[in-house]
Amino acid sequence: MTKKISRRKFLLNLSMWGGLMASYGTGALYVFRYLLPEKKAKQLRKIYVAPLNGIESGKTLKFRLPDGNEALILRLGDKYTALSNTCPHLGCKVKWRKQESDFFCPCHNGEFNKEGVATAGPPATEHKDLKTYQLKTIGESLFIEVEEA
Amino acid sequence: MFDKLTKWVLERAPVNTEELKHLSAEPVPNHLKRWWWCLGGTPAYLFIVQVVTGILLAFYYVPSFDHAYDSVRYITEEVPFGWWLRSVHKWSSIFMIMSVVLHTLRVFFTGAYRAPREFTWMTGTLLLGVTLMLGFTGYSLVFEQLSYWGATVAGNMAQAVPVVGELMARMLIGGEKIANNTLTRFYVLHAGVLPVAMVVLIFLHIVLIRVHGVSQFEFRDEKGTGKTFPFYPDHFYTELIMGVSLTILLTCFAIIFPAELGERANPLVTPAHIKPEWYFFFTFRWLKITGLTFAIISTGFFFFLMFIWPFIDALIRKFKPKSEISVWIGAFAFIGILILTIWEAVAEH
Predict the structure, then answer these.
(1) Residue A58: which residues within 8 A CB-CB, separation 6 or more?
(2) Between B266 and B216, where is the model more confident?
(3) In chain B, which residues have their Cβ closer than 8 Å to the Cβ of A20?
(4) Mean pLDDT of chain B
(5) At what angle do helices B118-141 and B194-212 cross, to 10 degrees?
(6) Those residues with Cβ within 8 angstroms of residue B199's Cβ, 6 or more apart along the chain or in another chain
(7) Domains along chain B?
(8) Architecture of the A44-147 domain
(9) How far apart are CA B151 and CA B178, in angstroms?
(10) Whether the Cβ atoms of residue B134 and residue B190 lie closer than 8 Å to each other
(11) Max Cα separation, chain A?
(12) What separation in angstroms does the CA of B236 have from each of B15, B129, B229, B231?
């Protein structure tokens, strides 16, 4: 059987339990924020790659990054591009094809243009491009920007 | 719908709600309506606050010689709301000690420790001791200059205890001097051993209170009326209001007087002025005005007397039934402690 309670008692209970839940709820929210690990903005650092004329135009230079991955630095005239050599499809290593002016993944025939954008094969279907890195030129030297570990 | 759900739950967890209602509605004497009779529930509530905030602090605290201070600094300055949790933890410990002391005084001066409640008093004095030890070990974990040298003084004081002092000090600080072992030991005591001891003692204390009932104490205006009221909901709500007020007070103190962080502990430089936390001011001053060994023995003896006081009081009243000697001795001891505390607080050295 459902017990009937007066409106006064109902409002009294509502304000009391509501107030308690609101105040301790705020505390719980603070606790959640306290326990939530902070997402820190990653700091970038420059690493020296090579002298500007150290890479021939139309060719790539393989550069090992501090996190163990590799980047391919491509020079086309005065333009330098840095791309990861890991295929975003299943992790095989891509190669630069000078004749086709593209990057090719031999595992599933994935193709990427000179900016790393997927143009054919499974990476294009999945819209997965090669990861790009920022390059900086200081004087006659080329630097790559990577996230601090 | 709600009735169906209740029925479903009760079929799986057959709790006798009527029995629970009966148990929680135990009639308690009318004097419990006075606010200072909530001083027993107050430290219990504060202990829960400390357990919760303590567990949260343990998520980031590193109990090692090299990282303790930095982890406290990280909690205080970098983790969101870390300063607030640390401050609430600190202030709840201070309020807890104050309320335990006030509760002890209330019980002593109303004679609530007399037969058959001797064991309730004894568990209470042990609770006071555990509370003070929790305060000391917690303060030492911060690993700033004052807490480091406070722990050093305590270690040396322990050494002065006759016969077992050397062993006690070695066991406490985990070696010859304050080092990594000390922090680990203090951490285990602070976060493991002492809270468990506290829970066991609180349980025993409450069981004894329930077995004997709350001591009868009648004020002049209600003499002979024998009025009572149910524990639940009346007294429960009183405690709840006390808890909410304390939470507000704790947050206010945490915001206005947040827990600070002094200089990093330096084992090579003793600060010019070292003082323990305020609740040890009286022992520190006593130590200064008497000798080390005498201070240790007399303080130990004082706590022992306090522990067995119900039996001493019974002995006194056996020979002088109407005597109020106990009250006078209690007042003398309390005023003495108060004077020593104030003296230490105002004195530079």
Answers:
(1) A75, A76, A98
(2) B266
(3) 240, 244
(4) 89
(5) 160
(6) none
(7) 36-215+230-346 (1.20.810.10)
(8) 3-layer Sandwich (2.102)
(9) 8
(10) yes
(11) 89
(12) 21, 27, 11, 6
- Name the nearest CA neighbour of A69 among A81, A86, A55: A86
Indicate the helix (H) or strand (E) that contains B107: helix B82-109
Q: What local confidence, expressed as pLDDT, does residue B90 receive?
A: 96
The C-alpha angle with vertex B183 and arms to B182 and B188, in degrees rounded to 5, equals 100
Asked if A34's CB is within 8 angstroms of B79's CB, the reply is yes
Beta bridge mates, A141 = A51, A138
Res. B196 pLDDT band, cuts 50 70 90: very high
**pLDDT 10s digits, A72-129:** 999 998 899 999 999 998 889 999 998 999 999 989 889 999 999 999 999 999 899 9
Give the tokens for residue A67. 């996190």
Q: What residues of chain B lie within 8 A of the CB of A24, using their CB?
A: 247
Look at A36 and B84 and tell me if their CB atoms are within 8 Å.
no
3-state secondary structure of B111: coil
Task: Give ∠ CA B71-B248-B97 in degrees, rounded to 5.
Answer: 65
Q: Does residue A135 sit in helix, strand or coil?
A: strand
pLDDT score of B218: 63
* For residues B270-297, average pLDDT: 87
Confidence of residue B272 (pLDDT cuts 50, 70, 90): confident
Amino acid at residue number B103: H
The one-letter amino acid at A76: L
Task: Give the HSE-up count for residue B250: Cα atoms under 13 Å, Cβ half-sphere.
Answer: 28
Is A11 an 8 Å CB contact of chain B?
Answer: no
Exposed / middle / buried, residue B226 (Cβ in 10 Å: 0-12, 13-18, 19+): exposed
CA dihedral (A126, A128, A129, A130) positive or negative: negative
User: Which residues does chain A have within 8 Å of residue B85's beta carbon, measured at their own beta carbons?
Assistant: 30-31, 34
Report the chain B residue with the minimal C-alpha distance to residue A2: B3
Q: In chain B, which residues have their Cβ closer than 8 Å to the Cβ of A34?
A: 56, 59, 79-82, 85
**Tens-place pLDDT, residues A36-70:** 887 777 788 899 999 988 889 999 999 998 888 89
CA nearest neighbour of A114 among A144, A80, A146, A143: A80
**E-strand stretches of B72-155:** none
| DSSP H or E segment with residue A82 | strand A79-84
The larger pLDDT score, comparing residue B224 to residue B50, is at B50
